[in-house]
Amino acid sequence: MKVIVIGAGLAGLACAVELADNGYEVEVLEKRPVLGGRVSSWLDKDGDWVETAPHVIRGSYKSLIALMERVGIADRIKWKKQQLVYASKGGKISNISFSPSAGPVEILRSMIGSDLLGFGDKLKLLTGLLPAFTGDKNFIENQDVKNFSDWAANLGVNREAIGRFFDPLSRTVSFLRPDEVSARVIIFQMASIAQGFNATRIGFLDGDPCQRLFQPIQAYLEKRGARIRTNTRLARIDFSNDAPRALGLELTNGEYLTADVYVSAMELHALREVLPGQAWSYPFFSRLWQVEEIPVITVQLRFDRQVIALDNAVFAIGTVMSLVVNLSVTSPGYADDVCLIEMIVAPAKDLFHLDDGEIVRLCLDDLTELFPEVAQANLVKSTVVRIPQALYRCEPGAESRRPSQKTPIENFFLCGDFTHHGYTPSMEGATLSGFRAAQMIMDAYGRNLQWHGGTPPS
């Protein structure tokens, strides 16, 4: 049985790996010359690696870690000291540290010991978060009705404290401020660090995602008979007029591809463009217009000397950046760069109208305020990466609008961060959605149809 997966980001590749391991004939189509989607990297005209964003791997990313273990590259995750690091203007660094065996009680104790929140605010937050910390999933899901700032303020938490502690976290996780993001997203993140051993770990790939993550996944798939085609752009999905079935795919070069099953792992806006007219007669597909996408900006700064030698992700308080990472320290593969600083600019919509030079200037000014040693270094090169429609806007109420991986078209499935998978926007969410789509296909059509060789999946 043949499956065509459209899109080679983490969602599409996770789906392809699961299906190939269970005997399906898999073909993956990718419109770009590189794999990875929003986690991709590529070489610029100078031969320097550019990434879509600093990609932080958390210990709670069970699906992503399982995918890397299956491919044999889990050792490429470089785990850092278990702590949350915050930087304030004036060069102040605040840490919330956790022991390797941290469980919920110790994590709560660590948070209480932080200087980022007043004692009263900590007690109010911990009281409000207690149901989430104890594993009450219904409680977490029910918080999607309001934004996080209002949720915390209703507990009596000072709004200045919300901004100091949660604003960088919210902008990193969702690219939205606490007064825009669903309370469910932040509460879910806080609950996930209380899962126990290793949940508080933060890691980075040991180099660029292209070579260290996606090329090994491609090799793994090809060893199992899968075909991966880059620079292959879809023009239209062909649905039957008589039955709820997908008939084939028309490419922009005029080629027409057929399979038994089709999986869209495209971005939401791209999927909308290629669905045929009859798809909109289904309420399922009409709801895709109710899920909004937001832009992302990432900035890379290369300096002539080492600055910000912190070997971890750093949340930035009161700046246009939400997260700052020195990749030349966190990821050994970037050691050839004297100093490569990468940062998330969020919310990106506030700055998207500015030219690259203005964005770099704002970032450099804020970075110098956070880390005064930056003023002694010379900026050698800057790169701004813009993605106009990057990920779904997880505002209050958005969770209920996210579609399932299973569609009304019996042989057409979805995966991607915008689909419903129970996680928040992240590499984990994308990977999980791909595995879930593959599971649904195997539930419908069977598994282990034929074995292509290699080590059987667990």
From TrEMBL:
Keywords: Oxidoreductase. InterPro entries: Amino_oxidase (IPR002937), FAD/NAD-bd_sf (IPR036188), Zeta_carotene_desat/Oxidored (IPR050464). Residues 10-441 form the Amine oxidase domain. Pfam families: Amino_oxidase (PF01593). GO terms for molecular function: 9,9'-di-cis-zeta-carotene desaturase activity. Its EC number is 1.3.5.6. It is an enzyme of class 1 (oxidoreductase). This is Uncharacterized conserved protein. The lineage of its organism: Bacteria, Pseudomonadati, Acidobacteriota, Terriglobia, Terriglobales.
